[in-house]
# Entry
Amino acid sequence: MKLNWLFLTLFKSGHAPKAPGTVGTLVSLPFGVAILMFFGSQTLFMISVLITLIAIKGIDKYEATSHEHDDSRIVIDELVGMWIALAIAPGIAFTMNDLTLWSNGITIQIILSFIFFRIYDIKKPSLIGRIDRETKGGLGVMGDDILAGFAAGISAAIVWQLILKSGLIG
# Structure
């Protein structure tokens, strides 16, 4: 159970006294960026799918013994949502030097992905909120963050395209 708990809390980052979801997202961000940088978006996405499947089973096991749904200390869902957003926007392999160039949009899209993900995860608009409220077990815990990750990645990519079209950067 201890190993499962370390996994679900992202090595206890979910134990942060304030905003454990945001802390979990921040902890997951550099790891997601590193995977994206060295292995590409497809690998990041597939690792997210694998972690999701493991997490659903782990959360179901935890909830069966604790009788608590969506414990705020469980932040593996934030990791998956953030990584899905990164796989979509910027969604390309890049080098460390690319992170310092604002004109290519990689760093901007990473920041936008983080911001949009946190907004969607906290506000839970539309279907994201419905999944959060109505789907039980591990699928419910993971599902809203998966959808928030897709929405965040698409939103970040759209905003970046609007920035490019406006001529603000280029």
Notes: The two ends are 51 Å apart (CA to CA). Residues 2-166 form one domain.
